[in-house]
Amino acid sequence: MSIRDIAEAFAQLCKDGRHEEAGERFWAESVVSREAMEGPMAVITGRAAVKAKSDWWYANHTVHEVTTEGPFIHGDQFALRFSMDITARESGQRIRATEIGLYTVADGKVVEERFFY
Amino acid sequence: MSIRDIAEAFAQLCKDGRHEEAGERFWAESVVSREAMEGPMAVITGRAAVKAKSDWWYANHTVHEVTTEGPFIHGDQFALRFSMDITARESGQRIRATEIGLYTVADGKVVEERFFY
């Protein structure tokens, strides 16, 4: 699959609300997930740990709506723009936010995801 | 200036339609500008050459509207999303397109800009 094929397939799964399936299908075993924050969630390494982070996130947030725009491609990277309307379950705080996910692909898999906000 | 200060100032100049001033103020002498294409415009190195590329672009396109969203920040990088409504002067083709610019900052200056589309 070309970078465009991978980016389009990943984006389509996100557009269909199947973010977890996008990860399961495309994360490399050694994938690194980077958040723009300090603390234990800042850098998560390895497919199982990244899936656990994703599971934690879904368990702790109610998702009202997420829309995905993209992909935007350059070389071996693609970007997606997410607009989210969510509620953090513990605080009850409703959050509307937009962020950019930047994905680096090698050998047909996502080896790094980096989130900007 | 922090990365957030630089990103906010750069984004504000773009939002005000002052893209060239953003470059003049923040491009490092050694800035590298990368487009997601083949050919001579793919990688342009150095402030003077990047300015010449920018000047070429403005001379060859009529800008009806550009809107800038962001900044989205991660570490020493920030992203902006541009929605453009332009006409290519030579062909007369009107183009509405959205792209992501990813900027890498070092010592208070943009050392790389990379465009995704």
How would you describe this structure to a colleague?
- The structure is a homodimer of 117-residue chains.
- Chain A is 30% helix and 50% strand.
- Chain A has a 6-stranded mixed β-sheet with strand order 2-1-6-5-4-3.
- With 117 residues, the first copy, chain A, is of the alpha+beta class.
- In chain A, helix 1 (3-15) packs antiparallel against helix 2.
- Chain A is built from 3 helices and 6 strands.
- The longest helix of chain A is centred in the middle third of the chain and has 14 residues, at 47-60.
- In chain A, a hairpin with a 2-residue loop joins strand 3 (61-74) and strand 4 (77-88).
- The mean pLDDT of chain A is 96.
- The radius of gyration of chain A is 14 Å and the shape is globular.
- Chain A has one domain (3-116): Nuclear Transport Factor 2, Chain: A (Roll), CATH 3.10.450.50.
Please outline the helices and strands.
The structure is a homodimer of 117-residue chains.
Chain A: H1 3-15, H2 19-26, E1 27-34, E2 43-45, H3 47-60, E3 61-74, E4 77-88, E5 94-106, E6 109-116
Parallel strand pairs in A: 1-6
Antiparallel strand pairs in A: 1-2, 3-4, 4-5, 5-6
Search tags:
homodimer, 117 residues, alpha+beta, Nuclear Transport Factor 2, Chain: A, six-stranded mixed beta sheet, 6 strands, 30% helix
Q: What is the CATH class name of chain A?
A: Alpha Beta
DSSP helical segment count of chain A: 3
Largest sheet of chain A: 6 strands, mixed
Order of helices and strands of chain A: HHEEHEEEE
Count of DSSP E strands of chain A?
A: 6
Protein name (chains A, B): SnoaL-like domain-containing protein
Domain SnoaL-like (chains A, B): 1-117
